Amino acid sequence: MTAIQLTPAQRKDKRADAHHLDPVVMIGGDGLTPSVVKEIDAALNSHGLIKVRVFSDERETRVAFFETLANQLNAAPIQHIGKLLVLWRPMPPKEKTEREDRKPGPRVVKLLKFSKSGNHRPQVKKITVLGNQRIAAGGELKRKKTRITSVKRTQTD
Question: How far, in Å, CA of 17 to CA of 107, rounded?
Answer without folding.
Answer: 31
